[in-house]
Amino acid sequence: MKINDLIAKVRADGNLDSLTDEEKENLFSYVEPDVDGAANARAKRERQKFEKKQAESDAQNEELREQLEAAQAGGSEAEKAKRESEKTNALNAKLKADLDTVNATLSAAQRDFALRNLPIQWQDNTPPDYVKSVLTRHFQDVDQDDLANPDVVGPLVEKIRAEQSQFIVAPVKSGAGTNNGKTQQSGQPTEGMTVEKAAELSRKGGKDLIDNFADAFAVAGEQG
C-alpha cells in the first residue's frame, strides 16, 4: 500500500491500531524524496549536454574562421596577381604602340630615302614639293620591298623621265658632256647612277635606317 493510502487509513480510523504491523513498518520507514537533489542532478545533466554542444559549436566556428581567413588570404593574392597582370598588359600595350609608331616612322623614312635616290636628275629650279608629288603619284602602288627591285623601278623611272623631260636633266655618260654626269640638284644621285645602283643604295640605306631606329628604340625602352 502506498504511503498516501496508509495516511488516509490512519486519518479515517483516528489511530494507528487499524494498521497492520507491515503497514506500520512501511509508514514509519518512509523517507521523504530529495526533490532538490533530483532537480539538481537533472540540471547538472542538462548543463553537461549544453556544454558539450557548446564545445562542438565553438570547434565548428573555429574551423569556419580558419577557412574564411584562408579564403581571404587567397583572395588577396589573387587580387594582387590580377593587378600585376593588368599593369603588365598596360605596359605591353604601350610598348606595342611605341613600336608601331617607330615602325611607321621607319617605313616612311625608308620610302623617302628610296625615292630621293632614284636615278633621276631634276633641274635645280624644280620645286621640291613638285618633285615629291610626281614621285609619290608614280610610286604610290609600289610596295616598300619593290623599291629596291630594278625590274619594278626601272620602267617607272623611264616613264617619269619621258613625262617630266622639261624638269629633268638628260642622263649624260661620264666624260661625254658637262658636269661629268653629276646631278644638277642637291640630294640626287651622281656620276652615272643607274637603277641597279639606286636599288642597291636603297637596300643599304634602308638597313642603316633600321639599325638606327632599332638602337634608338632600345635606348628609349631602357630609359622608360
Question: How many distinct beta strands?
Answer: 0
Class per helix and strand makeup: mainly alpha
Contiguous uncertain segments of 5+ residues: 174-192
Percent in helix? 55-70%
* Assembly type: single chain
Q: Can you write the helix and strand succession as a string?
A: HHHHHH
Rg, alpha carbons: 55 Å
* Total count of domains: 2
Mean pLDDT across the residues is 75
- The general outline is rod-shaped
At a glance:
The protein is rod-shaped, with a radius of gyration of 55 Å. It has helices at 3-13, 21-28, 35-116, 128-139, 150-163, 195-223. Helix 3 runs antiparallel to helix 6 (195-223) and helix 5 (150-163) crosses helix 6 (195-223).
Question: How would you describe this protein?
Answer:
- The chain has 224 residues and is mainly alpha-helical.
- The chain has 2 domains: 3-87; 97-223, no CATH class.
- 70% of the residues lie in helices and 0% in strands.
- The chain contains 6 helices and no strands.
- The longest helix is centred in the middle third of the chain and has 82 residues, at 35-116.
- The protein is rod-shaped, with a radius of gyration of 55 Å.
- Mean pLDDT is 75; it is low at 174-192.
